[in-house]
Amino acid sequence: MRGRAMQIRTASASRGMYRPKNYLTTPGGVAYVVLAVAILLVIAMEPRHVSTMVDQDNYIEYFRTTTWDWFVSSFKSRTSTLAFVISTVTEEFGWRAWVIAVNALGFAPETGVRLTVVLLNAAVFVALLETRRPLFGLLLWAIIPMALATVGTFQIRQGLAFGIAMLFTLRYQRPLTGWVLACFVHTTFAIPAILLFTIRFCGDRRRLAFISASVMSFVLVSSAGFLFRNFGGRRVDEYSGYHNDFTIKLVILLLIYVTASVIYLYSEWKNRPEAKATVWTELCTMHIVLTVYLVLAFLLFPFGKGRVWYCIPLLLPFIVPHIRFRNAFSIWYVTGIMLVLCAEVVKSYYEGGYVFLIGN
Length: 360
What we know:
Radius of gyration: 20 Å
Largest sheet: none
Helix content: over 70%
Oligomer: single chain
Order of helices and strands: HHHHHHHHHHHHHHHHHHHHHH
Number of helices: 22
Structural class: mainly alpha
Protein backbone atom coordinates (compact mmCIF):
# COMPACT_ATOMS: atom_id res chain seq x y z
CA MET A 1 0.00 0.00 0.00
CA ARG A 2 2.90 2.35 0.79
CA GLY A 3 4.53 1.62 -2.57
CA ARG A 4 1.31 2.38 -4.43
CA ALA A 5 0.89 5.64 -2.54
CA MET A 6 4.44 6.63 -3.55
CA GLN A 7 3.60 5.85 -7.20
CA ILE A 8 0.52 8.07 -6.99
CA ARG A 9 2.50 10.97 -5.58
CA THR A 10 5.39 10.52 -8.03
CA ALA A 11 3.12 10.31 -11.08
CA SER A 12 1.39 13.55 -10.18
CA ALA A 13 4.36 15.46 -8.76
CA SER A 14 5.17 17.45 -11.89
CA ARG A 15 1.55 18.46 -12.43
CA GLY A 16 1.14 19.37 -8.76
CA MET A 17 4.27 21.59 -8.86
CA TYR A 18 3.93 23.32 -12.20
CA ARG A 19 0.36 23.30 -13.46
CA PRO A 20 -1.10 25.81 -10.95
CA LYS A 21 1.81 28.18 -11.56
CA ASN A 22 1.27 28.03 -15.32
CA TYR A 23 -2.49 28.42 -14.96
CA LEU A 24 -2.15 31.62 -12.96
CA THR A 25 -0.42 33.30 -15.91
CA THR A 26 -3.45 32.77 -18.17
CA PRO A 27 -6.52 35.06 -18.41
CA GLY A 28 -8.53 32.42 -16.54
CA GLY A 29 -5.85 32.32 -13.85
CA VAL A 30 -5.92 36.11 -13.47
CA ALA A 31 -9.71 35.98 -13.13
CA TYR A 32 -9.29 33.22 -10.55
CA VAL A 33 -6.92 35.31 -8.45
CA VAL A 34 -9.14 38.40 -8.68
CA LEU A 35 -12.24 36.47 -7.61
CA ALA A 36 -10.41 34.61 -4.85
CA VAL A 37 -8.94 37.82 -3.41
CA ALA A 38 -12.34 39.52 -3.60
CA ILE A 39 -13.95 36.67 -1.66
CA LEU A 40 -11.22 36.73 0.98
CA LEU A 41 -11.57 40.49 1.39
CA VAL A 42 -15.35 40.25 1.80
CA ILE A 43 -15.24 37.52 4.43
CA ALA A 44 -12.33 39.23 6.23
CA MET A 45 -13.84 42.72 6.36
CA GLU A 46 -17.59 42.09 6.57
CA PRO A 47 -19.00 42.79 10.06
CA ARG A 48 -19.63 39.62 12.05
CA HIS A 49 -22.21 40.70 14.61
CA VAL A 50 -23.11 38.14 17.27
CA SER A 51 -26.79 39.06 16.87
CA THR A 52 -26.86 38.24 13.15
CA MET A 53 -24.05 35.73 12.52
CA VAL A 54 -24.92 32.12 13.36
CA ASP A 55 -22.48 30.51 15.83
CA GLN A 56 -20.37 33.68 16.06
CA ASP A 57 -20.80 33.83 19.84
CA ASN A 58 -19.85 30.14 20.18
CA TYR A 59 -16.61 30.58 18.28
CA ILE A 60 -15.68 33.74 20.16
CA GLU A 61 -16.23 31.77 23.36
CA TYR A 62 -13.90 29.04 22.05
CA PHE A 63 -11.12 31.60 21.58
CA ARG A 64 -11.79 33.21 24.94
CA THR A 65 -11.87 30.09 27.08
CA THR A 66 -9.60 27.51 25.41
CA THR A 67 -6.15 27.49 27.01
CA TRP A 68 -3.38 25.00 27.60
CA ASP A 69 -5.09 24.18 30.91
CA TRP A 70 -7.96 22.67 28.90
CA PHE A 71 -5.62 19.99 27.53
CA VAL A 72 -4.13 19.34 30.96
CA SER A 73 -7.55 19.00 32.54
CA SER A 74 -8.75 16.67 29.72
CA PHE A 75 -5.74 14.42 30.27
CA LYS A 76 -6.16 14.35 34.04
CA SER A 77 -9.86 13.54 33.83
CA ARG A 78 -9.34 10.58 31.48
CA THR A 79 -10.91 7.28 32.55
CA SER A 80 -8.43 5.22 30.50
CA THR A 81 -5.73 5.65 27.89
CA LEU A 82 -8.07 4.36 25.16
CA ALA A 83 -10.80 6.79 26.20
CA PHE A 84 -8.31 9.65 26.06
CA VAL A 85 -7.12 8.65 22.57
CA ILE A 86 -10.72 8.50 21.35
CA SER A 87 -11.44 11.87 22.94
CA THR A 88 -8.75 13.48 20.77
CA VAL A 89 -11.28 13.03 17.95
CA THR A 90 -14.59 13.37 19.78
CA GLU A 91 -13.43 16.50 21.61
CA GLU A 92 -11.68 17.82 18.49
CA PHE A 93 -8.20 18.36 19.90
CA GLY A 94 -6.99 19.65 16.52
CA TRP A 95 -9.44 22.54 16.68
CA ARG A 96 -8.48 23.30 20.27
CA ALA A 97 -4.79 23.27 19.34
CA TRP A 98 -5.46 25.76 16.54
CA VAL A 99 -7.34 28.06 18.92
CA ILE A 100 -4.51 27.93 21.47
CA ALA A 101 -1.93 28.67 18.75
CA VAL A 102 -3.87 31.71 17.55
CA ASN A 103 -4.33 32.95 21.11
CA ALA A 104 -0.60 32.51 21.74
CA LEU A 105 0.08 34.97 18.92
CA GLY A 106 -1.90 37.59 20.82
CA PHE A 107 -4.93 37.88 18.55
CA ALA A 108 -8.27 38.97 20.00
CA PRO A 109 -11.06 36.34 19.85
CA GLU A 110 -12.91 38.21 17.08
CA THR A 111 -9.70 38.45 15.05
CA GLY A 112 -9.01 34.76 15.62
CA VAL A 113 -12.38 33.91 14.10
CA ARG A 114 -11.70 36.09 11.05
CA LEU A 115 -8.22 34.59 10.64
CA THR A 116 -9.72 31.09 10.70
CA VAL A 117 -12.32 32.00 8.08
CA VAL A 118 -9.69 33.46 5.75
CA LEU A 119 -7.32 30.54 6.25
CA LEU A 120 -9.88 27.81 5.59
CA ASN A 121 -11.04 29.47 2.37
CA ALA A 122 -7.45 30.05 1.27
CA ALA A 123 -6.75 26.33 1.77
CA VAL A 124 -9.75 25.48 -0.40
CA PHE A 125 -8.63 27.94 -3.08
CA VAL A 126 -5.14 26.38 -3.21
CA ALA A 127 -6.66 22.91 -3.52
CA LEU A 128 -8.99 24.05 -6.32
CA LEU A 129 -5.95 24.98 -8.41
CA GLU A 130 -5.29 21.25 -8.80
CA THR A 131 -8.50 20.72 -10.81
CA ARG A 132 -8.73 20.97 -14.59
CA ARG A 133 -10.96 24.06 -14.45
CA PRO A 134 -10.09 25.98 -11.27
CA LEU A 135 -12.20 29.04 -12.08
CA PHE A 136 -15.30 26.89 -12.55
CA GLY A 137 -14.57 25.19 -9.23
CA LEU A 138 -14.18 28.54 -7.48
CA LEU A 139 -17.53 29.71 -8.86
CA LEU A 140 -19.15 26.53 -7.58
CA TRP A 141 -17.57 27.01 -4.16
CA ALA A 142 -18.99 30.54 -4.08
CA ILE A 143 -22.57 29.56 -4.92
CA ILE A 144 -23.15 26.09 -3.41
CA PRO A 145 -25.23 26.73 -0.26
CA MET A 146 -23.19 24.40 1.98
CA ALA A 147 -19.83 25.75 0.76
CA LEU A 148 -18.76 29.39 1.09
CA ALA A 149 -22.11 30.54 2.50
CA THR A 150 -22.04 27.92 5.28
CA VAL A 151 -18.76 26.20 6.17
CA GLY A 152 -16.84 29.06 4.59
CA THR A 153 -18.36 31.75 6.80
CA PHE A 154 -19.97 30.56 10.02
CA GLN A 155 -19.60 26.78 10.52
CA ILE A 156 -15.89 27.35 10.41
CA ARG A 157 -14.78 24.35 12.46
CA GLN A 158 -16.07 22.05 9.75
CA GLY A 159 -14.81 24.45 7.09
CA LEU A 160 -11.28 24.36 8.49
CA ALA A 161 -11.36 20.56 8.64
CA PHE A 162 -12.56 20.37 5.04
CA GLY A 163 -9.91 22.84 3.87
CA ILE A 164 -7.18 20.72 5.50
CA ALA A 165 -8.59 17.52 3.99
CA MET A 166 -8.70 18.90 0.43
CA LEU A 167 -5.35 20.67 0.67
CA PHE A 168 -3.57 17.47 1.68
CA THR A 169 -5.58 15.37 -0.78
CA LEU A 170 -4.96 17.40 -3.93
CA ARG A 171 -1.99 19.68 -3.33
CA TYR A 172 0.16 17.20 -1.43
CA GLN A 173 -1.36 13.99 -2.83
CA ARG A 174 -1.91 12.55 0.68
CA PRO A 175 -5.68 12.02 0.96
CA LEU A 176 -5.64 9.68 3.94
CA THR A 177 -3.39 12.03 5.92
CA GLY A 178 -5.62 14.99 5.12
CA TRP A 179 -8.90 13.36 6.11
CA VAL A 180 -7.43 11.85 9.28
CA LEU A 181 -6.12 15.26 10.33
CA ALA A 182 -9.57 16.69 9.59
CA CYS A 183 -11.04 14.26 12.17
CA PHE A 184 -9.19 16.08 14.94
CA VAL A 185 -10.72 19.38 13.86
CA HIS A 186 -14.30 18.18 13.30
CA THR A 187 -15.59 14.80 14.44
CA THR A 188 -17.83 14.11 11.45
CA PHE A 189 -14.79 13.63 9.19
CA ALA A 190 -14.07 10.36 10.97
CA ILE A 191 -16.68 8.61 8.76
CA PRO A 192 -15.16 9.58 5.37
CA ALA A 193 -11.67 8.97 6.79
CA ILE A 194 -12.56 5.39 7.74
CA LEU A 195 -14.14 4.79 4.33
CA LEU A 196 -11.10 6.25 2.59
CA PHE A 197 -8.80 4.00 4.61
CA THR A 198 -10.86 0.98 3.54
CA ILE A 199 -10.63 2.03 -0.11
CA ARG A 200 -6.88 2.61 0.14
CA PHE A 201 -6.39 -0.78 1.78
CA CYS A 202 -8.00 -2.50 -1.24
CA GLY A 203 -5.43 -1.02 -3.60
CA ASP A 204 -6.24 -1.11 -7.32
CA ARG A 205 -9.01 -3.70 -6.94
CA ARG A 206 -11.94 -1.45 -7.80
CA ARG A 207 -14.82 -3.80 -7.17
CA LEU A 208 -13.32 -4.96 -3.90
CA ALA A 209 -12.89 -1.32 -2.84
CA PHE A 210 -16.56 -0.55 -3.50
CA ILE A 211 -17.79 -3.72 -1.82
CA SER A 212 -15.50 -3.42 1.21
CA ALA A 213 -16.24 0.26 1.76
CA SER A 214 -19.98 -0.36 1.38
CA VAL A 215 -19.78 -3.13 3.98
CA MET A 216 -17.86 -0.76 6.22
CA SER A 217 -20.64 1.80 5.73
CA PHE A 218 -23.17 -0.75 6.94
CA VAL A 219 -20.99 -1.58 9.94
CA LEU A 220 -20.65 2.10 10.85
CA VAL A 221 -24.38 2.73 10.57
CA SER A 222 -25.20 -0.42 12.52
CA SER A 223 -22.82 0.53 15.33
CA ALA A 224 -23.60 4.25 15.23
CA GLY A 225 -26.00 4.10 18.16
CA PHE A 226 -23.42 2.40 20.39
CA LEU A 227 -20.66 4.77 19.28
CA PHE A 228 -22.72 7.90 19.91
CA ARG A 229 -23.86 6.73 23.34
CA ASN A 230 -20.37 5.77 24.50
CA PHE A 231 -18.06 8.12 22.65
CA GLY A 232 -20.26 10.94 21.42
CA GLY A 233 -19.39 13.30 24.26
CA ARG A 234 -21.03 16.69 23.92
CA ARG A 235 -21.91 15.86 20.31
CA VAL A 236 -24.91 13.77 21.45
CA ASP A 237 -26.81 16.81 22.72
CA GLU A 238 -25.52 19.13 20.01
CA TYR A 239 -26.69 16.92 17.13
CA SER A 240 -29.86 15.66 18.78
CA GLY A 241 -32.16 17.54 16.41
CA TYR A 242 -30.10 17.29 13.23
CA HIS A 243 -31.92 14.24 11.92
CA ASN A 244 -35.26 16.09 11.72
CA ASP A 245 -34.42 17.46 8.25
CA PHE A 246 -33.12 14.10 7.00
CA THR A 247 -35.90 13.64 4.46
CA ILE A 248 -36.29 11.59 1.30
CA LYS A 249 -35.91 14.85 -0.63
CA LEU A 250 -32.44 15.37 0.81
CA VAL A 251 -31.49 11.77 0.04
CA ILE A 252 -32.58 12.19 -3.59
CA LEU A 253 -30.62 15.44 -3.84
CA LEU A 254 -27.47 13.73 -2.53
CA LEU A 255 -27.95 10.86 -4.99
CA ILE A 256 -28.11 13.37 -7.84
CA TYR A 257 -24.98 15.17 -6.67
CA VAL A 258 -22.93 12.00 -6.28
CA THR A 259 -23.51 11.03 -9.91
CA ALA A 260 -20.75 13.56 -10.69
CA SER A 261 -18.29 11.06 -9.20
CA VAL A 262 -19.91 8.22 -11.13
CA ILE A 263 -19.41 10.15 -14.37
CA TYR A 264 -15.81 10.93 -13.50
CA LEU A 265 -14.94 7.30 -12.71
CA TYR A 266 -16.78 6.01 -15.78
CA SER A 267 -14.93 8.48 -18.00
CA GLU A 268 -11.54 7.62 -16.54
CA TRP A 269 -11.92 3.86 -16.35
CA LYS A 270 -13.61 3.44 -19.74
CA ASN A 271 -10.67 4.97 -21.57
CA ARG A 272 -7.98 3.56 -19.27
CA PRO A 273 -9.34 0.26 -17.93
CA GLU A 274 -5.98 -0.84 -16.50
CA ALA A 275 -5.01 2.53 -15.03
CA LYS A 276 -3.70 2.61 -11.48
CA ALA A 277 -5.70 4.30 -8.74
CA THR A 278 -5.08 8.01 -8.18
CA VAL A 279 -6.11 10.41 -5.45
CA TRP A 280 -8.98 11.45 -7.72
CA THR A 281 -10.35 7.93 -8.19
CA GLU A 282 -10.03 7.30 -4.45
CA LEU A 283 -11.76 10.58 -3.67
CA CYS A 284 -14.63 9.84 -6.05
CA THR A 285 -14.98 6.30 -4.75
CA MET A 286 -15.19 7.65 -1.20
CA HIS A 287 -17.75 10.22 -2.41
CA ILE A 288 -19.96 7.44 -3.74
CA VAL A 289 -19.58 5.13 -0.75
CA LEU A 290 -20.23 8.00 1.65
CA THR A 291 -23.58 8.42 -0.09
CA VAL A 292 -24.21 4.71 0.50
CA TYR A 293 -23.53 5.36 4.19
CA LEU A 294 -26.03 8.23 4.22
CA VAL A 295 -28.72 6.16 2.48
CA LEU A 296 -28.20 3.39 5.04
CA ALA A 297 -28.31 5.96 7.83
CA PHE A 298 -31.59 7.29 6.49
CA LEU A 299 -33.06 3.79 6.59
CA LEU A 300 -31.51 2.52 9.84
CA PHE A 301 -30.18 5.34 12.01
CA PRO A 302 -31.05 8.91 10.91
CA PHE A 303 -29.16 10.38 13.88
CA GLY A 304 -25.96 9.17 12.22
CA LYS A 305 -26.35 11.77 9.48
CA GLY A 306 -25.01 14.64 11.59
CA ARG A 307 -23.17 16.99 9.28
CA VAL A 308 -21.54 14.14 7.37
CA TRP A 309 -23.87 14.84 4.46
CA TYR A 310 -22.21 18.23 3.91
CA CYS A 311 -19.28 16.40 2.30
CA ILE A 312 -21.43 15.38 -0.68
CA PRO A 313 -22.15 18.91 -2.00
CA LEU A 314 -18.80 20.23 -0.70
CA LEU A 315 -16.89 17.90 -3.03
CA LEU A 316 -18.75 19.09 -6.13
CA PRO A 317 -16.51 22.17 -6.71
CA PHE A 318 -13.57 19.76 -6.99
CA ILE A 319 -15.04 16.80 -8.85
CA VAL A 320 -17.26 18.52 -11.43
CA PRO A 321 -14.48 20.80 -12.81
CA HIS A 322 -12.16 17.79 -13.09
CA ILE A 323 -14.48 15.68 -15.27
CA ARG A 324 -13.26 15.03 -18.81
CA PHE A 325 -16.09 15.82 -21.20
CA ARG A 326 -15.40 13.06 -23.71
CA ASN A 327 -18.94 12.76 -25.09
CA ALA A 328 -22.31 14.49 -25.22
CA PHE A 329 -23.71 12.29 -22.44
CA SER A 330 -21.19 13.63 -19.92
CA ILE A 331 -21.88 17.21 -20.93
CA TRP A 332 -25.65 16.91 -20.73
CA TYR A 333 -25.60 14.96 -17.49
CA VAL A 334 -23.35 17.49 -15.78
CA THR A 335 -25.65 20.20 -17.13
CA GLY A 336 -28.53 18.42 -15.41
CA ILE A 337 -26.63 18.35 -12.12
CA MET A 338 -25.94 22.07 -12.48
CA LEU A 339 -29.64 22.78 -13.08
CA VAL A 340 -30.55 20.93 -9.87
CA LEU A 341 -27.83 22.86 -8.07
CA CYS A 342 -29.18 26.16 -9.44
CA ALA A 343 -32.60 25.31 -8.04
CA GLU A 344 -31.02 24.74 -4.62
CA VAL A 345 -29.14 28.03 -4.89
CA VAL A 346 -32.35 29.94 -5.64
CA LYS A 347 -34.12 28.18 -2.77
CA SER A 348 -31.28 29.00 -0.38
CA TYR A 349 -31.23 32.63 -1.53
CA TYR A 350 -34.89 33.15 -0.68
CA GLU A 351 -34.32 31.43 2.66
CA GLY A 352 -31.59 33.96 3.51
CA GLY A 353 -28.64 31.64 3.01
CA TYR A 354 -26.46 34.30 1.40
CA VAL A 355 -27.30 37.30 3.63
CA PHE A 356 -23.79 37.56 5.04
CA LEU A 357 -22.16 37.54 1.60
CA ILE A 358 -24.48 39.72 -0.46
CA GLY A 359 -26.86 41.29 2.07
CA ASN A 360 -30.65 41.20 2.09
